[in-house]
Amino acid sequence: MSRSRKIVVVGAHWGDEGKAKVVDNLVDNPENTVMVRFAGGANTGATLVIDGQKFVGHQLPVGVVRPGLVNIMGPYVACDLEALVLELRVARENGAPVMIDPRAPIVLPMYKALDRARDGGGTGPASIGTTGKGMGPTYAAFASRYALRVGDIVRGRNHLMTVRDRIQAYHVELLAGLESCGVSIEDKAFEFEAQLEQCLEYAAEIGDVVGDTVRYVRGVIAKSEKDVLFEGSQSIMLDVLHGWPYCTSCFTGIDAIGNSFGIRRFDQVVGVIKAYSTRVGRGPFPTEMDEFTANIVRERGGEYGSTTGRPRRCGWLDLPALRYAVRMGGITCLVMTKADVLCNLMTIPVATGYLDPTGTQVLEDAILDTELLAGVKAVYQSAASWAGPLTLERNLSGFPPIPAELVAYMEQVERATQVSIRGLSIGPDRKEMIWFERP
Ligand code: GDP
């Protein structure tokens, strides 16, 4: 019997790299696979295209589209109950089992309102352009020990009453925060009792899938029963530590898996990159394209947020940032997506270093200092562009032909990061993927 695989898929840019497609591609036999979401929440928009049909996952793994595949939502995933019941319906219709950890913190409606009020749609002076899904206030509640957790609501009204006071104390603080943002706190959505009642209603819908995910996943691994695929959300560069303050609200890499599940050894940690870079929201972006070129790439690549519909900022490939993500994320191999989007461009600049803010020193690595990063200038080399369209049709040697310029482009990434590119995605569909060596 072959040994089961433990593979992590994380973003090595600023999110939206195509992680969902990659993790889906790594499934051998759905009935022999467990897929795990270990961080983030409904702020994620994980897109699969299956024979032209688009599916967007949020807080459950994208394995919910595959009958028989077990989908886990771990204890560090922020649980938006309203969105979860919709996703659970999809999983049930597809015959995909789900297990949700009782320790997962709940996103109360009020946290979403506060997130939106504070961020002001990404335009206010202190805003960073969040998705407005309440992640910041939820993880803040969790870290401050005020969070309501899934286990608190499925254990029934009596149990809920034992944690009620603690949560209400925080609620009062948040109401003051909302008021200071100019939001009327008379809104019914902010009534404390109403939010608790709503949670109890949702509890009736999710109660049968709540279970100890840590024990389950560890058991599967101990018995080598199934492949375990960990589906990352956001990315290493958006991690709360690496990207602060222009970041998501939680850890995004293998540390989150280690802390949640006690699993720290993997067969591969796959970093997903695009052939270029994108980011949403504010924050330093040294390789950002001029608006004319960005518009071309954005339209070709459909670079609009899956959760918010916002246009994504587009930039060239940034090797210093990639080196940083590989090293800090413990990434052991890469998959490059969206190579089709850059076909037939006149030139393809690649950032090989940064000129530091004083203009005297070239830095080869990104830095754990967002303010400093905001002052650097990318130093570019020009890569030869490749002709399209890219195709899956095999040539005489049995491989889909890949233009020599694209091969050279990938080799440059491999030299810079010291890890190999194992797969190349050449279109949105599940099938439009070339594996050189599948993990
Ligand atoms: P994720 O959250 O990392 O899974 O990424 P998203 O789903 O937010 O964004 C990736 C987008 O790129 C989705 O719309 C995918 O369908 C699309 N996509 C993935 N791979 C490719 C590719 O190789 N070429 C093109 N053109 N689109 C791709």
Describe the structure.
With 439 residues, the chain is of the alpha/beta class. It folds into 3 domains: 6-104 and 207-261, 3-Layer(aba) Sandwich (Adenylosuccinate Synthetase, Chain A, domain 1), CATH 3.40.440; 109-201, Adenylosuccinate Synthetase, subunit A, domain 2 (Orthogonal Bundle), CATH 1.10.300; 273-435, Adenylosuccinate Synthetase, subunit A, domain 3 (Adenylosuccinate Synthetase, Chain A, domain 3), CATH 3.90.170.10. The protein has 13 helices and 17 strands. The strands form 4 sheets. The protein has a 9-stranded mixed beta sheet with strand order 6-5-2-7-1-8-12-16-17, sandwiched between helices. The longest helix has 24 residues, at 157-180. It is globular. The chain starts with 5 loop residues before the first strand and ends with a strand. The model has no long low-confidence stretch (mean pLDDT 92). It binds guanosine-5'-diphosphate (GDP). Residues 11, 16-21, 45-47, 49, 301-302, 306, 337-338, 340-341, 425-428 line the site of guanosine-5'-diphosphate.
Q: Descriptors for this entry?
A:
439 residues, alpha/beta, Adenylosuccinate Synthetase, Chain A, domain 1, Adenylosuccinate Synthetase, subunit A, domain 2, Adenylosuccinate Synthetase, Chain A, domain 3, 3 domains, 9-stranded mixed sheet, 4-stranded mixed sheet, 13 helices, binds guanosine-5'-diphosphate
